[in-house]
Write a structure and sequence with these properties.
Elements lengths: L1 H11 L8 E3 L14 E7 L14 E5 L2 E4 L3 E3 L3 H16 L2 E5 L9 E13 L4 E12 L5 E12 L5 H26 L1
Parallel strand pairs: 1-5, 2-6, 2-7, 3-7
Antiparallel strand pairs: 3-4, 7-8, 8-9
Helix pairs in contact: 2-3
């Protein structure tokens, strides 16, 4: 495990000589057979996030209070914007929603999913990818919170390279996204 922490910590100090490798998240396409459906129209906010998570960089925590970044790699967009886009894709992929999209469009939404990105990193001491997203279902007419929950997923990192870390992040995100979709569609 110490070798993993040392490797990840050393990656942050590397200065890229060529453009960084760019990775994307995949929205889940498979859901439980009993996933609900809705005729409501809704929007998903861009998650709020602390500064370390509000970038294209892949966050690695070698210690609970230390934040570093994986060298020579990046996400395809800022993490909050990427998470928002893939959550919208996940709801659309169910085929069971009338309309889901970005807030502020021409569509009059019934509710909003307000999201907060709490964790989205590699926990190097545990050798795990960690994704934690807080979700609130909010009435667009009254502004009242109808329900809320925090979704946390952890997936083991199978290797010490960037591909293994991104695969684990993607798996953790997909797990959390499926849980968010199932929970939300059961409540709206």
């Amino acid at each position: 495990m110490l070798a993993f922490v040392a490797l990840v910590g050393g990656c942050a100090a590397l200065v890229p000589k060529s453009p960084p490798a760019t990775f994307d998240l995949e929205a889940p396409t498979s859901f439980p057979a009993n996933v609900g459906s809705t005729g409501l129209q809704f929007a998903i906010t861009e998650p709020t996030a602390v500064g370390a998570l509000d970038s294209e960089r892949i966050v690695v925590q070698p210690m609970p209070t230390e934040v570093t970044y994986l060298g020579k790699v990046q996400w395809s967009d800022r993490v909050p914007k990427l998470v928002q886009a893939r959550l919208i894709d996940a709801f659309r992929n169910t085929g069971k929603v009338r309309s889901v999209g970005l807030p502020g469009g021409a569509v009059q939404n019934d509710i909003g999913l307000v999201t907060d990105l709490q964790d989205f990193q590699i926990d190097a001491t545990a050798g795990q990818a960690v994704v934690s997203i807080a979700v609130r279902i909010v009435s667009d007419t009254t502004g009242r919170v109808l329900d809320s929950r925090i979704f946390t997923a952890r997936q083991p990192v199978a290797g010490n390279d960037a591909n293994a870390m991104v695969d684990a992040m993607n798996a953790a995100f997909q797990q959390a996204a499926v849980e968010i979709v199932v929970w939300t569609l059961a409540r709206i």
